[in-house]
Specification:
alpha/beta; Peptidase_S51; four-stranded mixed beta sheet; Rossmann fold; hydrolase; 7 helices; globular; four-stranded parallel beta sheet
Length: 219
Amino acid sequence: MYSGGQERSNRTLHQELVNLTGKRKGVSFTYVPYCHEGSELYYNRAVQRYRSFGVRKFNFLDIDTPKGPNSDSLKKAFQSDIIYLSGGNTFYFLKNIKRSGLLKPLRKYVAEGGVIAGLSAGAHIMTPHIQLAGLKGTDPDKNEVGLKSFSALNLVPFEFIPHFNPSTQGIKAVKKYSNSSKNPIYASADGGGIVIRDDRFTVYGKAWIFYEGEMLRLT
């Protein structure tokens, strides 16, 4: 789970992501953009970035189309060692994922040993729901698509805030929210994130945890 940014410290996360596949050669990678516009540019950047970490096969899965992705693209995606959910508007992204019928297949992919990564919006979507994506005081996304159901992949038992800036306003907003949430909330500054391998949970970069109105600095 990437907070965001492309600081040098993200290189550790990139390497950890590839290590999760358990492969030394021939790692395959599917990039899923949140929307079609401008996606080729960011896909090409991802190719350049992860090629230096040993990824050799790349696939592009565009779900922002009237008919959704074709069967050949989906087959290649779920045969990949890594599926990478990009950053962008979280509400727009989740709407496209749901419209394309990808929630259950993505959960199955992870359950069967596939590696999934999320950057910012993509990390939000890995959690139980994306309600935090619109929280005022924390660089919120706008729900311009009118998404009604915020339920997401539910791959982890916590919520996540990317791009976290521990300002007075931000801390106050998340503390208040945490009083009504059933889940602990992990907040990460850019350049950091979280790696989960089986039952091992590793935090990279600056991070905080919020629970029941309290905040604790982790790293």
